[in-house]
Amino acid sequence: METDTNPRLRTALVTGIGLLLGFLAMLAVSHFPGVPGHVPEVFVFLTRVQVFVTTFNFVLLVALLWTYVALYRNLPNRYTRSLILLSIALVLYALTANPVVHLAFGFPPLGGSPFIVIPHVFVGVAIVVLFYQSQT
Description:
Order of helices and strands: HHHHH
Distance between the termini: 25 Å
Mean pLDDT: 80
Number of helices: 5
Largest sheet: none
Low-confidence stretches: none
Shape: flat
Strand content: under 5%
Helix content: over 70%
């Protein structure tokens, strides 16, 4: 896989984009309809932090998945295919763990929705892929 940018620059660029998008998502979530008055402010703050972190992770994981797909095109093998499957599971984890997605499906971001469990299913899939890969 040939690339014109050096790995440090490319990593810094993707990380910067992830930080920027995470920050913008965190700011945007402040403009959603207010949470009920009985929710302590610390939970609102933690939800905003979760939006930042999960958006940041999502951006980085999409970039990583893109890299693995490019690698697979040049070097198709079982190991690279496993890395793609692992990346997909982690992308889905980051996506479903984001409180913005919870709101988009009509669930409160502070709990009481199936999104409390769904992200952990994708981590389980990622762990199974890693375990299988370590055995072959």
